[in-house]
Specification:
By secondary structure, this protein is α/β, with parallel strands linked by helices. Helices cover about 40% and strands about 15% of the residues. α4 packs parallel to α5 and α8 packs across α11. The radius of gyration is 19 Å and the shape is globular. The chain binds nicotinamide-adenine-dinucleotide and 2-amino-3-ketobutyric acid.
Length: about 300
């Protein structure tokens, strides 16, 4: 066990509920925190109610527990963000600035800030999107995360903060449902397949997007954070790839297990968000710098999701 004290913000969300449990296997003291109360296995360790917009509360919590690392997950995702752009900007930007400043004031050793494929936009090359390319996001979520990447790099360059980041693709998991994103269909489809043998999809059938199964995302996040600092060449955020598929591909995979499964399509406002994002990602920097390699493809993930998404 390592002796660092780790704080996770936004710990009740889709990633946090799994990341906290994985971190508790490595570190003696992992404090989960969120606006909401803890449920389930999160209650088996320390938990604090924390609004990341309240800087004095964040500072007090860091001092009280002698926190040495922060995983800052709290944010508003793409679809929810488009419904209230001012609020999303405030949570995503002010929340990150508070984390950065409190980390500097308390001499934290490391910070993790999750970025996203939403930092890319309609003018970005869509296939095998490179690490360095045109980035003109057109959602408030993407704009806030792109600005966040620049702040992360700035704090590393100018203040020496050891901050690390990944551009997560759409994440698929069954422990906690997805929290207001454009890729959420790829989670919901498995739950509804098991419940109703049918699913009405809010994206068109051929909308391909980069995706990843949660066990890969957790393993990659910890690998990035555990890598020696001199291996981390990129301090904005690494491209990070798992698989790419469209709704019709998931449906076809589910049909192999459940021949009477039916999918229908009723695209909504999330279609234009999805169309502004890459279809697949080139993550060769992550492969070279800290040895990234995904384990799950669509077939392997589908078998596991159908067995567990209930
Ligand atoms: P989520 O929406 O499931 O969870 C976010 C959590 O943050 C929620 O529990 C919410 O209560 C909490 N929160 C919101 N505002 C807060 C505040 N002011 N103070 C404290 N907590 C607050 O999100 P997630 O899917 O777990 O994503 C976590 C991070 O990863 C986010 O930064 C997100 O942008 C990023 N990310 C996620 C995905 C994905 O597919 N899940 C993909 C790319 C990037
Ligand atoms: C969303 O759809 O908003 C997230 C993401 C890809 O950042 N899942």
């Amino acid at each position: 066990m390592q002796s660092d004290t780790v704080l996770v913000t936004g710990a009740c969300g889709q990633i946090g509920t799994e990341l906290v449990l994985a971190l508790r296997k490595i570190y003696n003291n992992v404090i989960a925190s969120d606006l909401k109360d803890a449920t389930g296995e999160l209650q088996d360790g320390p938990f604090e109610r924390l609004d990341v917009l309240h800087r004095p509360g964040l500072n007090d919590l860091v001092k009280k527990h002698k926190v040495t690392q922060i995983y800052h997950l709290a944010a508003i995702l793409s679809a929810t963000g488009e419904k209230n752009p001012e609020f999303a900007w405030r949570v995503n930007m002010k929340g990150l600035r508070n984390i950065l400043d409190v980390s500097m004031e308390n001499n934290l050793s490391k910070v993790f800030f999750p970025s996203t494929i939403a930092v890319f936009g309609p003018t970005t090359p869509k296939v095998n999107t490179p690490q360095y390319t045109v980035m003109e996001p057109n959602t408030i979520y993407g704009i806030s995360k792109q600005a966040g990447e620049r702040w992360a790099d700035y704090y590393f360059q100018k203040k020496g903060l050891d901050i690390r980041s990944i551009r997560y693709p759409g994440l698929i998991s069954y422990k906690t449902k997805a929290g207001g994103g454009t890729t959420d269909y790829a989670v919901d489809i498995y739950f509804e397949a098991n419940e109703k043998k049918s699913y009405e999809c809010f994206l068109k059938e051929d909308t391909a997007l980069p995706m990843m199964y949660m066990p890969d995302a957790i393993r990659g996040t910890i690998a990035l954070m555990e890598a020696p600092a001199d291996k981390i060449r990129i301090r904005s955020a690494y491209n990070f790839s798992g698989m790419s598929f469209a709704p019709k591909d998931v449906a076809a995979e589910i049909v192999k297990h459940m021949p009477d499964f039916k999918i229908t399509y009723k695209p909504d406002f999330r279609q234009s968000i999805a169309e502004s994002w890459p279809q697949s990602i080139d993550d060769s920097y992550a492969q070279q710098d800290w040895g990234w390699k995904p384990d799950f493809d669509l077939a392997k993930m589908t078998t596991d999701m159908l067995a567990n998404a209930r």
